[in-house]
């Protein structure tokens, strides 16, 4: 009684997912594009801050560093809803950044996702680069490069490992719904992305459609990962 | 050519180094003059690598100090070091050569000139665009040597630069070292290859269990070692 | 190679971000959005005026909060008491009637409280409480939640006494509430619009409808520009004027699911004094 409809739903979701893609549905296309744009921009923004921060933490030794590392690792678990609320209160017209008028816009979603994933990028980058720094430290000091100069060197030499870090950030960004729902408002045609569309269809009770959208999202994330991996392999073969 | 800003002689006085309360080097007094290579020999774990690091200022001494002659503000700019385990950047062979040259403030043309010269010096010219870390162990060691030599240091520290080279490469590297020495570069080199030490050394520093047991002109040292340990070591009978 | 890729990616992302257009933001309720009403009427308005309407769909309480913070230009909700307070406190300008729909009580096929077919909400709710049949409440300060609490009061039942046993508050929107009721074979109160477009009914069906107490009035108001200078007064007012105009009212009346009209325009009826 319970399992039969569920099987049917799964079946129909799969068919619907294929149908959505095959139709090249314009609304879906726009939602997909916005999702990609928001999450990729958020990753780029977070990388700009998070990767150098992670590299700096990998090379710098200062009192309280251990505390910073622990805090950063803990921030990886920042609930999206909390990140969303924080940005909501900042960007609300009644908040400190209200005059910018960014609430309920894609820009707000980018900021919230960037806040969410910057600690992830920083923490993972620190881990990856610290191992590399252990190997490089003496040689770079012999060349007269201090920790500051080591940061760009490590970022560049760690580029292939860092790509995986970026993909982890992208995965988290494109999968989260709490933050973009709150600061974007899930406005149709303007701030609706894959995850908020899935949440909407779920609450409308159209579970097969929600599941179908979920499958499309997974396919997109898979494609982005495959592309990145492919490029990485090509570049790695050239540069080592 | 580089005499006016010479940093030699180098003096170590009462030099000691402990790690975690364990004394690794004790009371080293040593003067290194310009001229033919100084060879540092001694059994495994005697402290050769640590001594080179102290002299190159990669490690802060626990006791005593290292002083350099001359007015040069930063004596490290006149030194380079080739490590026992070569540390190559995750870049092409050419980029590895350029990196320290760029750090030293040389312009691009000069970097290219010196890199090409250094590649020819160690016979790696055909591999210029290969990923450095995919080279064989011996090729990596030769690249590390070329990279240090390209800096044209006044003092070049070498920590067993021929450890994983085949006989032909060993001879080639030795010739390179002879050429560098002839050009006026002071070599300070740790090695386990006694035959090589005999061929290269101007003077010999013999370390045993963290103490400098002898520092003598090579001819005298090899002909008539002053300590029983050195004599045993030369006979191949001294264990750590 | 890698360097060029990074550069290309940076350029692609830096291109002029998200297109700007003439638009207003309307804080409204999940019921209006999810029933599909906005999807039907807003394109008509935009075609006539060139003003895009961005709807943020929340519970009525949250939607009023968004208005209070100045994060929307117009509030379009259904909780008359709360709306009147909103205006009285100076957060919004004049409130106007727009339309009404009605609530229904839905329940499982088995109907353990035996209320199917009833038109007396108070009696039906009393039966549910007496039989301790599970009831899913929004519990989210929404207009529907507020209406539900008023109905319990009229029935003389304090549902809090059954909290966690048969009275289950989930703190979510209408859709999740119906999903939960369907999964647990429970009763729930919903607006008819959401019910009609709700797909995951499983055994759920309407058990109580047609009681005058189930009518649900929607109101619209402009966020007070004196409080929030950035409020798009002109375009927001234009939307309000349109939705209470004959054209807007006709658009509302024209929205049907399976031939069934969901919302009944009644802007002509003056707002009764508070
Ligand atoms: N940072 C350190 N912390 C603790 N112990 C160290 C450290 N560096 C070196 N040692 C110890 O000091 C001793 C001397 O090490 P060193 O590397 O100088 O030996 P070596 O003479 O170069 O030997 P080999 O011929 O094997 O290269 C060894 O016992 C080593 O384990
Ligand atoms: Mg050693």
The largest inter-chain interface, given as chain pair and residues per side, is: A-C, 37 and 39 residues
Question: Strands across the major sheet of chain B, in which order?
Answer: 5-6-7-3-8-9
Listing every helix as H and every strand as E from the N terminus to the C terminus, the arrangement of chain C reads HEHHEHEHEHEHEHEHEEHHEEE
CATH class of the largest domain in chain C, named Alpha Beta
Tell me the strand percentage band of chain C: 15-25%
At the third CATH level, what is the topology name of the largest domain in chain C? Answer: D-Maltodextrin-Binding Protein, domain 2
Give a verbal description of the structure.
The complex is a heterotrimer of chains A (240), B (240) and C (274). Chain A contains 10 helices and no strands. Chain A has 240 residues and is mainly α. Chain B has 240 residues and is α/β, with parallel strands linked by helices. Chain B has a single domain (10-88, 140-145, 152-234), classed as Rossmann fold (3-Layer(aba) Sandwich). Chain B has 8 helices and 9 strands. In chain B, helix 2 packs across helix 3 (108-122) and helix 3 (108-122) crosses helix 4. Chain C folds into 2 domains: 24-100 and 215-265, 3-Layer(aba) Sandwich (D-Maltodextrin-Binding Protein, domain 2), CATH 3.40.190.10; 102-214, 3-Layer(aba) Sandwich (D-Maltodextrin-Binding Protein, domain 2), CATH 3.40.190.10. In chain C, strands 1, 2, 3, 4, 5, 6, 7, 8, 9 and 12 form a 10-stranded mixed beta sheet that branches. Chains in contact: A-B, A-C. The interface between A and C is large, with 37 and 39 residues.
């Amino acid at each position: 009684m319970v399992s039969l409809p569920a099987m049917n739903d799964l079946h129909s979701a799969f068919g619907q997912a294929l149908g959505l893609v095959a139709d090249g549905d314009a609304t879906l296309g726009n939602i997909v594009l916005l999702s990609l744009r928001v999450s990729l921009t958020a990753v780029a923004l977070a990388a700009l801050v998070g990767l150098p921060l992670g590299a700096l933490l990998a090379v710098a030794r200062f009192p309280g560093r251990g505390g910073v590392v622990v805090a950063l690792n803990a921030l990886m678990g920042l609930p999206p809803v909390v990140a969303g609320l924080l940005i909501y209160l900042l960007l609300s017209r009644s908040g400190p950044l209200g005059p910018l008028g960014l609430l309920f816009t894609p820009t707000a979603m980018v900021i919230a996702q960037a806040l969410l994933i910057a600690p992830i990028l920083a923490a993972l980058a620190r881990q990856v680069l610290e191992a590399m720094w252990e190997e490089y430290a003496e040689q770079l000091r012999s060349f007269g490069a201090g920790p500051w100069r080591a940061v760009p060197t490590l970022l560049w030499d760690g580029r292939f490992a860092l790509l995986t870090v970026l993909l982890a950030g992208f995965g988290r960004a494109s999968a989260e719904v709490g933050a973009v729902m709150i600061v974007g408002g899930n406005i149709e045609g303007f701030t609706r992305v894959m995850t908020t569309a899935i949440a909407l269809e779920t609450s409308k009770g159209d579970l097969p459609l929600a599941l179908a959208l979920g499958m499309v999202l997974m396919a997109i994330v898979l494609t982005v990962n495959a592309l990145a991996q492919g490029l990485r392999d090509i570049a790695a073969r050239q540069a080592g | 050519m580089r005499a006016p800003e010479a940093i030699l002689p180098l003096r170590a006085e009462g030099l000691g180094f402990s790690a975690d309360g364990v004394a690794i080097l004790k009371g080293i007094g040593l003067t290194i003059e310009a001229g033919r290579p100084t060879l540092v020999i001694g059994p495994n774990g005697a402290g050769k690598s640590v001594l080179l690091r102290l002299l190159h200022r990669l490690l802060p001494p626990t006791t005593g100090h290292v002083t350099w002659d001359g007015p040069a503000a930063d004596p490290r700019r006149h030194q380079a070091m080739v490590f026992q385990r070569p540390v190559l950047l995750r870049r092409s062979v050419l980029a590895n050569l350029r990196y320290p040259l760029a750090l030293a403030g040389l312009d691009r043309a000069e970097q290219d000139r010196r890199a090409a010269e250094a590649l020819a010096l160690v016979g790696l010219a055909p591999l210029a665009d290969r990923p450095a870390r995919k080279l064989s162990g011996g090729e990596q060691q030769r690249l590390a040597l070329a990279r240090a030599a390209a800096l044209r240091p006044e003092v070049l520290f070498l920590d067993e630069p021929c450890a994983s080279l085949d006989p032909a490469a060993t001879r080639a590297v030795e010739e390179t070292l002879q050429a560098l020495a002839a050009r006026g570069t002071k070599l300070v080199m740790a090695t386990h290859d006694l035959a090589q030490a005999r061929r290269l050394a101007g003077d010999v520093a013999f370390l045993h269990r963290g103490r400098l047991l002898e520092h003598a002109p090579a001819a005298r040292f090899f002909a008539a070692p002053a300590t029983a340990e050195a004599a045993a070591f030369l006979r191949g009978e001294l264990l750590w | 190679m890698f360097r060029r890729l990074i550069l290309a990616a940076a350029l692609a992302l830096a291109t002029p971000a998200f297109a700007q257009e003439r638009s207003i933001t309307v804080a409204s309720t999940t019921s209006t959005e999810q029933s599909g009403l906005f999807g039907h009427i807003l394109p008509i308005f935009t075609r006539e005026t060139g003003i895009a309407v961005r709807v943020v769909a929340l519970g009525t309480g949250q939607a009023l909060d968004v208005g209070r913070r100045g994060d929307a230009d117009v509030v379009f909700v259904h909780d008359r008491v709360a709306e009147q307070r909103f205006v009285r406190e100076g957060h919004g300008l004049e409130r106007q009637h727009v339309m009404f729909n009605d609530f229904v009580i839905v329940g499982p096929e088995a109907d353990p409280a035996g209320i199917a077919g009833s038109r007396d909400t108070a009696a039906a709710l009393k039966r549910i409480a007496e039989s301790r049949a599970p009831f899913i409440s929004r519990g989210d300060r929404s207009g529907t939640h507020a209406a539900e609490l008023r109905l319990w009061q009229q029935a003389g039942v304090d549902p809090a006494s059954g909290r966690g046993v048969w009275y289950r508050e989930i703190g979510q929107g209408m859709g999740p509430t119906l999903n939960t009721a369907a999964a647990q074979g429970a009763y729930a109160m919903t607006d008819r619009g959401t019910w009609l477009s709700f797909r995951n009914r499983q055994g759920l069906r309407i058990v109580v409808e047609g009681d005058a107490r189930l009518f649900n009035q929607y109101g619209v108001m402009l966020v007070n520009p004196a409080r929030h200078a950035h409020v798009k007064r002109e375009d927001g007012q234009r939307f309000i004027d349109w939705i209470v105009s004959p054209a807007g009212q006709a658009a509302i009346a024209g929205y049907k699911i399976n031939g069934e009209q969901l919302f009944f325009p009644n802007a002509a009826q003056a707002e009764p004094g508070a």
